[in-house]
Amino acid sequence: MTFYIITLFPEYFASALNCGQLKKAREKGLIKFIFINPRDFTEDKHKTVDDKPYGGGAGMVMMLPPLDRALQQTPQNSYKILLSPKGKLFSQEKAKILAKQKDIVLICGRYEGIDARLEEMYSLDVLSVGDYVLNGGESAALNIIEAISRLLPGFMSKEESFKEDSFFNDILEYPHYTRPEEYKGYKVPQVLLSGHHSKILKWKRQKSLEITLKNRPELLIKTYLNQEDREFLKK
Ligand code: SAM
């Protein structure tokens, strides 16, 4: 998969894409990143990419021509995303859909955002990573890149591990523990040391349900609950 990242700050991504699993995935050739800076597509000596908003208001707006020229560098049938707090909320479900794409374009806004006509010109999918406002779309783009990349075949060393992640089955993941068995009086739950496979599975399921009920009860509405789950949740 190739990510085309349209950004005024390509340097923002340097360390994030050069460490850990993303670095390994790049080295394996699973993912590729191409940076396109709208500033390279300006026509004045100051390389201007922003201007005052029509109708007044605070801040500056990213101008259409440099963004349009930057987008012309991307494949015509690529999936084009504009990062914006005004967009639809990005989710694991959306990541699964996007993981099937070959080329994804991520447009990172800055200042007050971009000239609104770009959305219509390119039928952009406008996505938000949460109900808060960031300085720019770069960290939002990184969120989306990581969520999608984890789902690509070959990305995880253990193919199954993302299937246990939170949201994969619409609920949150159970808690994890590792050595030592006891630390300052805090113990690992006994069942996890029992070696009893079916009891461990039952414990994991119940912990997932418990955490989901506590932190994100609305998720339980869309997930499949069997009789045992429902009885556990009633307690
Ligand atoms: N004036 C805009 C508004 O209130 O909707 C916010 C602009 S924000 C300071 C600059 C850029 O950061 C946006 O154009 C967008 O690309 C990015 N951004 C900010 N918050 C975001 C979020 N929650 N999700 C995705 N992108 C975001």
Automatic annotation (TrEMBL):
GO molecular function ontology, one term from the record: tRNA (guanine(37)-N1)-methyltransferase activity
Subcellular location(s) per record: Cytoplasm
Keyword Transferase recorded: yes
GO BP annotations listed: tRNA N1-guanine methylation
Annotated keywords: Cytoplasm, Methyltransferase, S-adenosyl-L-methionine, Transferase, tRNA processing
EC number: 2.1.1.228
Plastid is among the record's keywords: no
GO cellular component: cytosol
Its job: Specifically methylates guanosine-37 in various tRNAs.
Protein name per UniProt: tRNA (guanine-N(1)-)-methyltransferase
Provenance organism: Desulfonauticus submarinus
Part of the full-length chain shown: 1 to 235 of 424
